[in-house]
């Protein structure tokens, strides 16, 4: 540094400083040499040497004890010096500097103040808290400009220090006074210097309205710091009655939603939203607007818990909405992504939370409540939402099948994306495997009702049915004497190609029955054979040629043993006996393919036609 001759070079330019008992040279810059003072402070700060940093504090304090900042004063030098002092853990020197800045009205940057709080909190210097808060109050009174988030940050650091509630309240009071002062200053600036009393009154009313809007927001923060969620609910009800415009209510609700969603960032027990909702409903006198706001806040809180996988807390939010009979599935959230989320996505999140907490009933309740909606003009959703719904419902089906709750599983399957809404543009043929899985599970449990309903649904949607399952259903229905249903499905199975084309006709009077058919399927094939030849059976001239039934072996001879074929013969005889009236078969011969050939006794065939042709003609003539 270049110093004027009157300054002590030992003091300013050596690490040890001046050791003279009485020095004739200056140890403090003279008034008017502010530029020299700033150069000295800048140099000492750059060295990062604790001894020189302390000397810089002495120079700053002594110089500005006598003079006020001039044109050469550098706020950057001041901020850099304070940061260097903090880095060297010279906290009390920082307080000395800050007290001087308050007196000379040359305040440091807000970021520097926040770093002071952060430094004290990170090192847990609780002894410094009283001095820190006192200095903070002085800085605010001197005119330091803060935003509300700066106050929140300071309060966060104080909580980290675990200071007393009294000290927290001190900062909250400073915050309230600060905001009120800012509002009043705006009012003074707005009021014209001249004007009627009416004009002044009008401006005052505008000012007072701003105050009334702010005060609830300030108290909201107070409730947050105290974790008093019941008081938060009561405060909302009181503040809501004073909100003349929707915008004010929306702003108030957004603040509450942000406070309640922050709970997802903590591990503390309990769910603040539940206490808040109870308090609102207790004091709101069943106001419908309050129910909507609670529902929308609840959605936002649910999303916040879902995001961090806090399933139990998310479940408590949903249970509370259900308890209060708030139909949240027709609402949207207030903040974040959920504010623009589709109805499909909101329902998906809620149902997933119920599933993660082991509640199938809760998941199905949410879906039913939403009427299984996916995409609507007012609630459009994207492909990701549709895929999530598909995966969700597939999981539900698996869980219901595990618990043998087949009717519930079928309800879920009927509401897969693509069935309820044509705009989903989903290929429903992909669901065939899930439906076939349900039908198979129903067979194993002998639940013909659900399996029949599932087959009806699949046929109506042109979905591919497993032929073995369809044949099994036809057989099970026949064995349960549900012949009407069995005939309907057999007719559908024929049209789908489940069975080989019937070879019985008026000219050949011969029916080829595959030996792998069950007795029920064989009887249904015989019924078609009888209806097709009904005219000849009734005619006296048609009795000259017998009606033949050939029990056809499987094309792959290795797949059917002699005993298997013999069992098939017994099934054919049983099929004739199951008929009402009974049919009688007469063994004729065995053809070159080693297949049994039977003739159908015409008297029994005629009796069957006479008694059944009225309904059979309607069923089998196609």
TrEMBL record:
The chain crosses the membrane at residues 184-208. It is found in: Cytoplasm, Cytosol. GO terms for cellular component: cytosol. This is Protein TOPAZ1. One of its GO terms (biological process) is spermatocyte division. Its main location: cytoplasm. It comes from the Eukaryota. Important for normal spermatogenesis and male fertility. Specifically required for progression to the post-meiotic stages of spermatocyte development. Seems to be necessary for normal expression levels of a number of testis-expressed gene transcripts, although its role in this process is unclear. Keywords: Cytoplasm, Differentiation, Membrane, Spermatogenesis, Transmembrane, Transmembrane helix. The keyword Transmembrane helix applies. Residues 220-394 form the Protein TOPAZ1 domain. PANTHER family: PROTEIN TOPAZ1 (PTHR35671:SF1).
